[in-house]
Amino acid sequence: MPAPPKKKGRQAKGGRAGARKRTSTPVVGKEYNYVLQLGEDDVALLQRYRDVLVQGAAGFAQTTYNYLFDNPDIADVMYAYERDGGNVGALVRGQFEHLLHLLGGRLDESETLASETVGRSHYHHGVRPVWSLGAYRLFLDHLQQLVASDPQIEHDDREALESALVKMVFRDIGITTEAYWREAVEQLTEQRDVLGKEQNLADELLGNIPQLLWTVDIETNRITYASPGTLNFCGGELEAPIPCFYRVNGAQRERVLTAWQQVIDGEPVQLEVQVDLSDGDEHWFRLAMYPVANRRGRVLRVHCLMEDVTELRSDRKRLEQMSTTDDVTGLANRTLWYDRLSSALAVARRNPGASVAVMMLDINQFKVYNESLGHRGGDELLRRIARRLNKVVRDSDTLARLGGDEFGIVLPLVQDVDKAAERVARQVIASLAEPFALDDKELCVSASIGIAVYPQHGEDPHSLASHADSAMYRAKWNAAPFLFYEADTIPSAREHLQFSGQLHGALERDEFELVYQPKVDMASGQIRGAEALLRWRHPQQGLVMPKRFVPVAEQLGMITPITDWVLSHALAQSRGWQGNGVQVPVSINVSARSFQAPGLLERVERALEQAGVPGSQLEIEITEGTLMADLGRGAEILGRLRELGVSVAIDDFGTGYSSLAYLKRLPINTLKIDQSFLEDMDTNTQDAAIVRSIIDLGHNLGCTVVAEGVENQAVLDRLQALGCDLVQGFHISKPLDVDRFGHWLIQAH
Ligand code: C2E
Ligand code: MG
Ligand code: MG
């Protein structure tokens, strides 16, 4: 058959026959000439009768055409050929011309190459040799008939001509068929070479990447591919169906088998398993297994990618730790703390009546320690503090360092939440009471704690944390060791803003007032002093109590001029009463900020001078926390105040866990028992015992003991029995303005 027109598709793959350098074999033609005994005589004979032989060509072409389409297999190829844009008519004509060409009787090289090209092109077009053979047979039939019957052919030449024609056709069959197969072999070799190169490349790639790849044929349970890395990794143990299975740690094999079942059921799986290698270290691999299924969903193969994730896992673990623990103290960090708080709240929500307490704890004056110890020393102090705090909390509580010197505690699902939180707060404070020995120094550390409780003070983690935080700040300002959140005493953000604008002008506008509450001697019933308590006559809000505006004033740095105002007015008042013939020493409250502010002593001295009042007529009330925040400086100020004749009272005593050893060394004149102990004193034996021991302690320290907040006779009687020196409270008198206090004085006289 001749070379049909170029076909798309099929040819592209193998490359065009002519495009490739190939071994042309003209020698083949000579071999055929020899084997078939095709000689000069044959050629001469063919040339002589060529014109005769060419007769009837059209009829032959039709026969060939019919032949092609009568055979269904060949017809299929022809139809496909036409579908691909080929022209069967032209093909047949070409075929025919080739055959006619043979009749020219040429036996040279170009003739041989032409036949070879036909053979090669048959291969490319899927024209099998057996079909070509059919065309040759038709051709021979046609010629034999012609030779036998055409009168133009001499009778004596007929036998020789027929023989020459047969040899010529045989020769062409031989050359085209050989070329056909040679092309096939060359094509396959070339493909194999390409594949081999690709395989080498793939092997090189897969041998050098750290991932391992393998494929298992599910039908036969055989490993059909294992990358060089896999072979290396598994050593001789490439057992099917799961390569390297016995490298998997015994405890994890069950998981791998489950995953295998899943993947052969058609679902991709990923899992991380521990594998045992000879080095004895812990190694982890991630297996990603993908099923390959046929159209009906039947899984044929499983591909697997294995990857060493040992480092990844340890990085991940480290990261997890880093993201949940505080690297200085090893406690939980803010993230984990909020997480635990959220979980505790979620549990509490499902348990009606359940409570959660949230505590914020801030170390007082930590900045000072940090500066004097250096950051390393500061960190060490934080670690020691953390260790002590850790002993106080239960396993179910979460203690975290939230940043800087701030710690948080979550007490989940507590019964009797206020008491429990208070107990923990007291324990925390007690745990810090013992000084820390660091760098040959003894450091006294105290903390301020704010407590907020679910559900009373908030329902979500953030509002609870922020309320505990504001309670903590309030505790700090009030120098109280711990305080619960109180919605109405914490200035709201709006109030804060409002106050901050207005407080600035309050002094100039003369909006502050003092009220006085007497302190009375239990034994004699005589007045021994008056505590000056500050009020702000707010232009819109009326009388504002100190608990609302003092924290704001402190925050705004305005408390010192206010303290000065209180100081001068209270002293002037005392001087006024003195002029009326009554000696009433005044007590003023000095907050932690004012106490620590530089120049307090100078200002006190100046105020005394200006009022013309001796220091003995003035008492300063500070809280335990104010003193303990900076003991050294506190002791120094107290000493100087004593030199001025000014007395010092510890206000709200009993709530602050002062170190008794230090108290002993400080020049303190008065202890004021916190009113919280008096409230239930007649019913609560514990409170009564505390009051008794404060009175005893005060007396042992050489102090006057005042009970403040006495609201009824029963408490008064108990206090009298316990030997309390002075009393102050609504039962004796409420805080009164100057005029009313004057009347009270006259009456009391
Ligand atoms: P504090 O120094 O402990 O004052 C005693 C508080 O108890 C006063 O509240 C007083 O009115 C109240 N009180 C007195 N007797 C009774 C009683 O029998 N029952 C009850 N329930 N309460 C009683 P106040 O005036 O609201 O002052 C609250 C706090 O504000 C004071 O506590 C003090 O820490 C602070 N404060 C008052 N004035 C000033 C001031 O001029 N400067 C500073 N920095 N703080 C002040
Ligand atoms: Mg006071
Ligand atoms: Mg008090």
What does this structure look like?
The protein has 749 residues and is of the alpha/beta class. It folds into 4 domains: 13-199, Orthogonal Bundle (Globin-like), CATH 1.10.490.10; 212-316, 2-Layer Sandwich (Beta-Lactamase); 325-489, Alpha-Beta Plaits, CATH 3.30.70; 510-748, TIM Barrel. It is built from 29 helices and 21 strands. The strands form 4 sheets. It has an 8-stranded mixed β-barrel, surrounded by 4 helices. The protein is rod-shaped and about 175 Å long. The relative contact order is 0.05. Bound molecules: ligand C2E and magnesium ion (2 copies).
Q: Would you spell out the secondary-structure blueprint of this structure?
A:
Blueprint: H1 10-14, H2 26-35, H3 40-48, H4 50-53, H5 57-70, H6 72-83, H7 88-102, H8 109-125, H9 129-149, H10 158-208, E1 212-217, E2 222-226, H11 228-234, H12 253-264, E3 269-276, E4 282-293, E5 299-308, H13 310-324, H14 334-350, E6 355-363, H15 366-392, E7 398-403, E8 406-414, H16 417-433, E9 436-438, E10 441-443, E11 447-454, H17 461-477, E12 482-484, H18 493-506, E13 512-521, E14 527-538, E15 542-544, H19 546-555, H20 559-579, E16 586-589, H21 592-596, H22 600-611, E17 618-623, H23 624-629, H24 631-643, E18 647-653, H25 660-665, E19 670-673, H26 676-679, H27 685-700, E20 704-708, H28 713-722, E21 726-728, H29 738-748
Helix pairs in contact: 2-8, 3-10, 5-7, 5-9, 8-10, 9-10, 15-16, 20-22
The protein binds ligand C2E and magnesium ion (2 copies).
